[in-house]
Specification:
- It is a single chain.
- By secondary structure, this protein is of the alpha+beta class.
- The protein has one domain: Glutaredoxin (3-Layer(aba) Sandwich), CATH 3.40.30.
- The chain contains four helices and seven strands; from the N terminus they run E-H-E-H-H-E-E-H-E-E-E.
- The strands form two sheets. A four-stranded mixed β-sheet has the order 2-1-3-4, with helices on both faces.
- A hairpin with a 2-residue loop joins strand 3 and strand 4.
- The radius of gyration is 16 Å and the shape is globular.
- The N and C termini lie far apart (38 Å).
Amino acid sequence: MIAIRIFDPAMCCSTGICGPAIDPELVRFAADLDWLKRRGISVERFNLSQQPGAFAEHPAVKAALELKGEASLPIVAVNGDLKSSGVYPSRDALAAWAGLAPSAPGPEEHQAKSASCCRPAKDGSLLSSSNGCCGGTVASAEPKSSGCC
């Protein structure tokens, strides 16, 4: 079985798809990872701020961080071998590494799902659906077309 592991830079939540300013590249990448999962590929993400031990336990990831620091992130490893460093790879690259034929994403795959969006807390801070802090306050968050925050 193919196992893809992503070692993300420090982010407020596991996907980075939260807060008042959502990076469209992270939305695209999350959709691509969901696409892989639906095809039976094992996908796991590690966030530097939440799971630093995973970075230290993987010798190649640890070496990349020692050599280039956080500029080496994100790192993508397939069955333990580093395939990408410093950028989020395309769906075509992910598909090739997984031994799959690439597929064009549907329009629904390029929208942040409400489950990964932030929601206002009683104290005015923004919370992701996983209860992680997204930063900012409800009053300072600008409405987004995705419906987040």
